[in-house]
Design goal:
This protein is of the alpha+beta class. 20% of the residues lie in helices and 37% in strands. The radius of gyration is 16 Å and the shape is globular.
Length: 147
């Protein structure tokens, strides 16, 4: 059995943006919003390398990363602890990720804007469901005074 449970897959559909946090070799953190965490197999995910030059530099110095995902079906939050493995600039994972990013871009009116440089493949060290540890999204989305 891999590190990724099946129940995490809805959080990887790109409906709710995810966040990735990396640290440089000296420990300086960098956080970026990402549109897509692509499921490769039960032990690997791919992150799109489009603009994240600081993330790429950090991962070259320190291959560890953490990704925060939210399921649009249950609003469960997940933390993925990752380790960079390699980058792919062609092949089935690259092509599938490129198509998904283009689909997301066209939905938000940005078709043709994003250029996928690589599909960065990460090994999943752990996947932790954080139910009850963060403020639930429905509460955050509710305007003040209407609770």
């Amino acid at each position: 059995m891999g590190a990724l449970p099946d129940e995490i897959k809805p959080a990887m559909q790109g409906v709710i943006p995810s966040h990735v946090v990396t640290c440089s070799g000296d420990g300086t953190p960098n956080a970026s919003a990402i549109s897509q965490v692509y499921y490769v197999d039960p032990d690997h995910v791919a992150l799109s390398h489009q603009f994240f030059n600081k993330t790429v530099r950090n991962v070259a110095e320190n291959p560890r990363a953490v990704v925060w995902l939210i399921s649009p079906e249950t609003f469960d939050a997940w933390d993925l602890e990752l380790e960079y493995d390699h980058a792919e600039t062609s092949g089935p994972v690259f092509e599938a990720l490129d198509m998904q990013i283009e689909a997301i871009a066209s939905i938000v009116g940005l078709k043709g804007i994003f250029k996928l440089r690589s599909a960065d493949i990460y090994r999943v060290i752990s996947a932790t469901k954080n139910v009850g540890e963060r403020v639930p999204l429905p509460e955050i989305a509710e305007p003040t005074g209407r609770r």
